Amino acid sequence: MRRIEEVAGNNTSDLTEMNRSAIVRILQQKEVCTRAEIAKLMGLTQASITKLVGYLIEMGVVSEVGIVKGNGNRRSIGIRLNAEKNLVIGVKFSRHVFAIGVFDISGKLYTQKETEFGLDENTGIVLAQMKKQIRDLLDEYKNIVAIGLALPGPYLRKEGRIAMVTRMPSWHNINFIEEFENEFDKPVFIEQDANAGALAEWWFGDHGRPLSSLTYFLVGEGVGSGVVDNDRLLLGYQGIASEVGHISIDYNGPVCECGNRGCLELYSSTTAFLKEAKLKLPELFRDKYENRTMACERVFDAARSGNTKAKALVEKIAEYIGYGCVTLINAYDPEIIVIGDSISKADELILPTIKRIVEERTIPEVSSRVRIKISKLSIDPTLYGAAAIATDRVLRKPSEYLFTN
Amino acid sequence: MRRIEEVAGNNTSDLTEMNRSAIVRILQQKEVCTRAEIAKLMGLTQASITKLVGYLIEMGVVSEVGIVKGNGNRRSIGIRLNAEKNLVIGVKFSRHVFAIGVFDISGKLYTQKETEFGLDENTGIVLAQMKKQIRDLLDEYKNIVAIGLALPGPYLRKEGRIAMVTRMPSWHNINFIEEFENEFDKPVFIEQDANAGALAEWWFGDHGRPLSSLTYFLVGEGVGSGVVDNDRLLLGYQGIASEVGHISIDYNGPVCECGNRGCLELYSSTTAFLKEAKLKLPELFRDKYENRTMACERVFDAARSGNTKAKALVEKIAEYIGYGCVTLINAYDPEIIVIGDSISKADELILPTIKRIVEERTIPEVSSRVRIKISKLSIDPTLYGAAAIATDRVLRKPSEYLFTN
Q: What is the mean pLDDT of residues A35-39?
């Protein structure tokens, strides 16, 4: 029985590990803390914290940083995480591009690189390029502890396969677990892209603490969502929960590749948006444009300059995103919804409409309390999310994964 | 920080408690087990199990039951849960009726009683009746360890208030936590009705084990859902996650009391079904009928007898339930969906259509694996669920809640 095994898997050393993990996670978010502050946050005695911190100092995971002001103005020794000692590689894989970055476990970026490829390009060649770049980074950065890989969903987590990606049929049969599991001498963790975005916002986003439940709403070429409910990623049976892009908003609507009708993705993706934009504003698309995100931004810029047709197009997609938020609220009751990916670049153009729709279409107890924000991460949330996948795993089991002295 | 407090809340005695809880939960589902079987299921040594079981025997929570056949045909002593020593009261509260039952922690029913009331009846009088009946049961059954209360949703868990119940505005301001918290000398646990149904199916349903993720789809006068994802109830920020009844299936549809348009509840509730039925089949409704469930059953019986209009009505609602299942799959990726409450009495009349819709509208990887079933619990799932709310809580902390010698 799965749930019993999980409970039973705990033993005294696991428990010590959970407490170590909790300390590392506090320091990941707070930079510098005193032992007394940690003790208070964790509800443990200072003696226990001293012991746990002592072990982490010995491991080299944390350091003392001299005297800081503690509780009640007493001067105490500060503790900080040696984030730079533990790096992760994040790999974002999407329809036209893969991106690879090196980060430390506090989310600081060291290097990143994007590689474009065609939808019809040989999958083996793309994978070989990706692995080569990872191998080069492992050679260059010696203290990498884990690799996180973010894939477009729905990703069948147990099988290692992408179940269906619109316009990417050739990737359907790649087994990512087999491809990556034993390829490097570092652990590789794989999640779907919207889940990665949710973890990025959870770990690296500036949303205040405590935070109990966060939903990341990815609105780009694909439309999806990732849900952290009470500190845990919602995964479902096969790992493909929270596919909001394929929740219908019109049961009589047009047919989607997934078989459903009226899927939200058909109304609110960049594909849907640009199709309309090219019809209504052909003058914006006379020159070759670099990619979809930039093409969308042309329309947003036109709206910002007062172009009436562009404003109407942006208003329309904001309404659909609003319906999506209402669905997310009724499905997951999040404390915060963070909207990310290409369409989120419309930012202040779409946010008032989204909030109005949520106010109109949910009960006041909900609309008055849920926070709806545009992602402000300075790094692509899916790439950052790939790093967060790895960070999440290693910080939950520090002595298993982190570098020690 | 919530998540850190939760982790930090664990200490060595909590861990022992988690292992005791795991043993009690194994026995709750398996009736009789040997120590070796428990050790194998939990991945612990037999010596640890012997110690843990010894404590539970001393507490009187479990007993030895003589020789049974163990692993490899060896004769071993069987262990069983003394379920009858620990009873719970379940209280179901719904729009026209409240029901109270006494159960043991293996789900066996001892007694139950229903009390009807009018939607406009004074809430204080109804609550006083409910409390009086609970008090009488506490006097009659001395070994009750906890009380579970299932309320119609969306129930704001932290506040103790029902946020909105269609057609029950007078109940909006009752604070159930205040009303019940200190009323009895037993702990009272409160959840929304569809969550209660999910826990009932999780604890008492016959769905095989292991089971990772289950969604209960309540289709009655209200429409809702309860989601157990990887052994944990999905709750959200305010406790009102998984309100599938208010997820829209048509963003241009009719306006719902919640403010949204085209809510699933407007198409698939008994209210919607009976409204259509009275128009199309007035001959079935000439006599006064007792309640909505029975009124629905008249239509189902007519369909079973070959009445074409009744068959068309049932087919139509089965399609809407199918769309609801597709939404649940895209939202939660459950291993199993269990459909319960009044409309589920249509059983074999609706199941093939529901399965067809799911097959048409989801990817094969999902439709071929998700199990869709009609609830077969012999007891009203919401009342049973109220008992499951209490059972879930006490079995997760046996030495805190269970009666001991």
A: 88
Which of B2, B3, B25, B53 is best to mutate for the A interface (most A CBs within 10 A)?
A: B3
Domains, chain A, ordered by start: 2-81 (1.10.10.10), 85-199+382-401 (3.30.420.40), 206-376 (3.30.420.40)
- Indicate the angle between helix axes B292-304 and B308-332, nearest 10 degrees: 120
Higher pLDDT, residue B237 or B74: B237
Q: Do B260 and A12 touch (CB under 8 A)?
A: no
Enter the DSSP assignment of A171.
G
Interface test with B, best of A319, A332, A372 (most B CBs within 10 A): A332
A10/B22 Cβ within 8 A: no
Residues 115-154 of A with CB under 8 A from B: 154
Structure tokens at A294: 């930039």
Percentage of chain B with pLDDT > 90?
60
pLDDT tens digits, one per residue of B39-56 = 888 777 888 889 889 988
Q: Tell me: pLDDT of A12 over 50.
A: no
A191 against B69, higher pLDDT? A191
User: Residue A6: which of B231, B243, B363 has the nearest Cβ?
Assistant: B231
Q: What are phi and psi of A181, to 5 degrees?
A: -55, -50
B116-147 burial code (b ≥16 CB/10 A, e <16): ebeeeeebeebbeebeebbeebbeeeeebbbb
| pLDDT for the residue numbered A24 | 85
Asked if residue A179 lies in contact with residue A151, where contact means CB atoms within 8 angstroms, the answer is: no
SS3 B118: coil
Helix (H, G, I), strand (E, B) or coil at A289: coil
pLDDT 10s digits, A58-70: 888 899 998 887 6
Put simply, whether A4 touches B (Cβ < 8 Å) is yes
CB-closest option in A4, A18, A236 to B333 = A236
- Which residues in chain B are contacts of A258 at CB distance < 8 A? 361-363
Each residue of A41-96: pLDDT tens digit? 877 788 888 988 998 898 888 999 988 876 666 788 999 999 899 999 999 998 78
pLDDT at B30: 81
- Please report, for residues A207, B25, B330, B383, the alpha-carbon distance to residue B377 in angstroms, rounded to integers and kept in the order given: 44, 19, 26, 11
pLDDT digits (tens, 9 = 90+) for A291-320: 888 999 999 999 999 999 999 999 999 999
Q: Nearest by CB to A250, from B7, B29, B251: name it.
A: B251
Interface pTM, i.e. ipTM: 0.88
H helix intervals, B228-332: 265-268, 270-280, 292-304, 308-332
Mean pLDDT over the full length of chain B: 89
Are A217 and A324 contacting, i.e. CB atoms less than 8 angstroms apart? yes
Q: Which helix (H) or strand (E) holds A209?
A: none
In chain A, residues 220-239 whose CB comes closer than 8 Å to chain B? 229-232, 234-239
Chain B residues inside the 8 Å CB shell of A237: 212-213, 333-335, 369-370
Pairwise CA distance, residues A200 & A203, whole Å = 5
For residue A141, the Cα-to-chain-centroid distance in whole angstroms is: 23
Element (H, E) at B205: none
The reply to whether residue A3 touches residue B230, judged by beta carbons under 8 angstroms, is yes
